[in-house]
Amino acid sequence: MANFVQAAPATITTLMRLKHFSLAFGQQVLKALADESRLRILHLILRNREMCTSDLEQVLDFTQTKTSRHLAYLRNAGLVAPRKLDQWVYYSIKDEGADFVNQIFSYMERDTILQKDLEVYQILYSNRELAVTKLQNRRWIAS
């Protein structure tokens, strides 16, 4: 009980920092967070700053359709923003919800599923099997 009481003021403060917080926005965000697949996607994006759709598919072993559907839901909820780079679309956490998302995941940091996702990411990254490693190794030619 004491832990909850201590954590509550920080959570309320975090919620108040959102730029566009309303009952409708709160409902939208909480619905988006009510799905395990979306939480796993959001956690990977949060921990890696941004991730492309194909890397999320590979790490989570999701189909392209499932990944895109959940990313669209997160985008429509105002939690993630897309950035197109060549044939890849990268997603990052929007500033408006970053504090709230960080706070939520601070309570779930030791979850075994989320930890396993990070381990799989590290293995695939080390083996250079992700799009992010291909982009990092690309030599850009100035025009």
Topology:
Elements: H1 2-16, H2 23-32, H3 36-48, E1 50-52, H4 53-60, H5 64-76, E2 80-85, E3 88-93, H6 95-106, H7 112-126, H8 131-137
Antiparallel strand pairs: 1-3, 2-3
Protein name: Regulatory protein, arsR family
Domain HTH arsR-type: 18-116
Keywords: DNA-binding, Transcription, Transcription regulation
Structure description:
This protein has 143 residues and is mostly helical. It has one domain: Orthogonal Bundle (Arc Repressor Mutant, subunit A), CATH 1.10.10. The chain has helices at 2-16, 23-32, 36-48, 53-60, 64-76, 95-106, 112-126, 131-137; strands spanning 50-52, 80-85, 88-93. It has a three-stranded antiparallel beta sheet. α3 packs across α5 (64-76), α3 (36-48) packs across α7 and α4 packs across α5. The longest helix has 15 residues, at 2-16. The termini are far apart. This is Regulatory protein, arsR family.
